[in-house]
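Deliverable D5.2: sample structural annotation.
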Amino acid sequence: MRITICWPLISGYMAACWRALAAQSGVSLQVLAWRPEASRDHIDFDLSLVEGLDVRLLDGVERCDARLIRGEVEAYGPDVVVVPGWFWRPYREIVDWAYRRQIRVIMTMDTSLQLTMRQLLGRWIMAGYFGRIAGVYVPGERAFQLARVLGFRESQIRVGSYGFDYPLFAGCLEQRAASPMGWPRSFLYVGRYVVRKGIDTLVEAYERYRRQVANPWALITCGQGPLEERLQSIQGVTNRGFVQPQELPSVMSDAGAFVLPSRFEAWGVALAEAGAAGLPLIASRSVGATAEVLRDFYNGRRFDTGDASSLAAAMHWVHEQAPRAAELGDRSRCLAEPFRSELWAERLLTLTQELSQRGR
């Protein structure tokens, strides 16, 4: 089976998924994805992430060139095309091209159900486009419900559209628990330094938390972006800058808990990776992945989006759980395992086979 995946920016977790898919018997994989530009995208991934894969990286001009993209796909001749939602016009044109040639199209979609007017009207506004989609691949329950609202049948939808290199993180818990220094006393944030990620909420909450306890944990941040200056000169905060995916296990092994304070996060693979690393988790209620990998008071805490007081209370709670942090981390690891990249590939292949049997 020849599969083409049209994707936005490359990432470590999607590269792991693509490798798992390419390793499947009988699969030939082509990927078209955007080449990251640090000044525009606020990420700086090493391109060796996709080394050995058939990946065509599109620069800032090429990613907008529908004719070039269509030419790449047409020359490859796929049996199945995978596209990311409907936000990028050149990829939407690929859907039209594939539909005319009776090539099955699977759409990934990570937006959560919010029952906004835009979502409620989307079923009719996008009816022509959605009618060309054979199957939908969503990350979790929140996006599954939106897919149903948009008119897709249950038989068209599969859950689990994000995965990651689970074995890469699997040894972190034991390494951390065996440290002669004891469980690390630090919170970790990994992500872009932008408003959407709730950096301002994190800083305010951390300062409140420090005032509430006698021996506060440190806060380690890894990323880059326009709000980097907000992290400067804050007592207890260390900014490590952008970290490559292969460095994440070491970073997470040295942390005691993971925080994702996003104002909006369609899913949040970093939360699942931190879970696989055996960390107690803290995340806002706007993080889609909390529905799958975070159980309140079981392996971490949810907090009210944008509420620094609520986040400070969650950090305080995790601080107090230090004696049983390894137990919480083990629970996180179990909840994260279903999202390993090998299962991502199996789910996608199963969906393509089912669609083929139904003649779509």
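Annotation notes: The longest helix spans residues 341-357. The chain has a mean pLDDT of 94.
The annotation will be released with the project's public dataset once the embargo ends.
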